[in-house]
C-alpha cells in the first residue's frame, strides 16, 4: 500500500512527498510503524518551529532595547553638546570680564598715581612722609577702637559671668572647707623637767648620737629653753618619727642605744600605717576608690609636709573638693578633676630627687598608670604646659582658690616684700607710668599715669598690657587687680 505524507504543506514548507510502501502480510504492522515515525518527525518540527519563533521574539526585543539605548545616548550627546556650548560662552564672558577688570585696575593705578602726585604737590610732602602721616592717623584711630573694644568685651564678660562664677566658686569653697592646723617645720617635745635632757644626751653623748643616727634628725637641747626639746629635719616624716619616738622614750625612762633603735623601728611602722590610712581617708572623702596602694601611701606623706605653713594633705584635699564641685557645676569629668586636685602636689613628697614638684608628680602619676587626663592636670596646674582640657583648667583654678583663701598660707616677710616690689616694678616699666603701689597684700596694684602722655582711652590698653606682663613674668597666689588712674588738675592762686 502506498500513500503520500502531505503534512509538510500545512506549515507552508515545501519538499518532496514521501511515499510509503507496504508489502506482504505485515502491511498493518508496517503501517503503524510508519505513523509513529511521522508523529516523532512532526513533533520535532513543531518544537523547532517554536524555538525559532522564541528566538525571533527575543531578537526583536533586543533590537528594540538597542534602539532605545541609542536614542538615550543620542539625547545625552545633545545635552553634553549644549552644556559644552554654554561652558564655552561662560568662559568667553569670564575672559572678557577679566580683561575689563585688568583694564580698570590699570586705570585705577594710573589715577592713584596722579592723585598721589597732586597731593604731594599740594601738601608739599613726599610719598613716604604722607604714608607716615596716614599710618599715624590710622594707628591713633585703631588705638581708640581697640580701647573701646576691650572695654566693651570686659563689660560684657563681667555682666554675663560675674553672677555665675561667684555662685560656682562660693559653692566649691563651701564644699571644700576643711579644718586645718597651722603646724610648722620644727617639732617640739615637752619634758617634765630639764633633768631628762641629761638622760637624753647619755654618757659621753651616746644616747643622742644613737637617736640622731636612727631617726635622721637634729636634736636641739638649748639650755635657754626650759622644758622642751626641739627636733629639726628637712624630711617631715623623719621629724614625726623622731617626735613620737622621743615621747615614748621619755615615758619609758629607759633611754639607751639598744632601746632607742627598738622604739624608732616600732614608731616607723606606726607612722607608715598612719600615712597609709590618711591617704586612704582623703581619697575616700572625694569618692575615689581602687587607687594603687603605693599612691595612697605616698599621698599620706603629705600629712607631714607644709608649704607657706599650710598642711599639704589638707590643701590637696581642699583643692580636690573645689575641683570636683566646679566640675559638677559645669558638667566636666568629676573623677578626673577630683583625682587631679588631690594629687596635683604629690611631687612635693619626693624631697630627695632632682626636679620641680610638677615634674616629679608627673613621673609618679605615670608610674602608677594614672589616666593621661589626670597626668595632664598635674603637669599643667602651674601652667608649665598649655592647658589640654577643661579638667586641667579646673584643677588650676581650684588650686588658686585654695591657696588664695584668707589664712591658707603664711609667707616670710622677705618673700612678701620682694613679691610686692616685683609687682610695682612690672607696672612702672611701661612708658607714661608715674607711680605704682601694690596694696592688699599684693592682690591689687594701683598705677598712676602721666595725663599728658596717656589719654583716657590709653589707660584701658595700659591696664591690659600690665595684666599680661604680670601673668607672664611673676608667680603669685590668687589674682591681681590692675587699677590705672589718670588725673588732670588745674590750679590757680587767688590774691
If you had to describe this structure to a student in words, what would you say it looks like?
This protein is mainly α and 495 residues long. Among the domains are: 28-92; 177-285, 2-Layer Sandwich (Ribosomal Protein S8, Chain: A, domain 1); 413-485, ANL, C-terminal domain (GMP Synthetase, Chain A, domain 3, 2-Layer Sandwich), CATH 3.30.300.30. Helices cover 63% and strands 8% of the residues. It is built from 14 helices and ten strands. The protein has a three-stranded antiparallel β-sheet, covered by helices on one side. Helix 9 (334-342) crosses helix 12. It is flat. The chain starts with a strand and ends in a 10-residue tail after the last strand.
Describe the structure concisely.
The chain is flat, with a radius of gyration of 50 Å. Helices cover 63% and strands 8% of the residues.
Low-pLDDT residue intervals, each spanning 5 or more residues = 1-25, 178-184
Q: At the third CATH level, what is the topology name of the domain at 177-285?
A: Ribosomal Protein S8, Chain: A, domain 1
Beta-strand share of residues: 5-15%
Helix residue percentage: 55-70%
Q: Which superfamily, in CATH terms, is the homologous superfamily of the domain at 177-285?
A: K Homology domain, type 1
The largest β sheet comes out as: 3 strands, antiparallel
What string, H for helix and E for strand, traces the elements in order?
Answer: EEHHEHHEEHHHEEHHHHHHEEHE
- The counted number of beta strands is 10
**End-to-end CA span:** 173 Å
Q: Identify the CATH class of the domain at 177-285.
A: Alpha Beta
Q: What is the architecture of the domain at 177-285 at the second tier of CATH?
A: 2-Layer Sandwich
Report the C-alpha radius of gyration, rounded.
50 Å
Provide the spatial order of strands within the biggest beta sheet.
Answer: 3-5-4
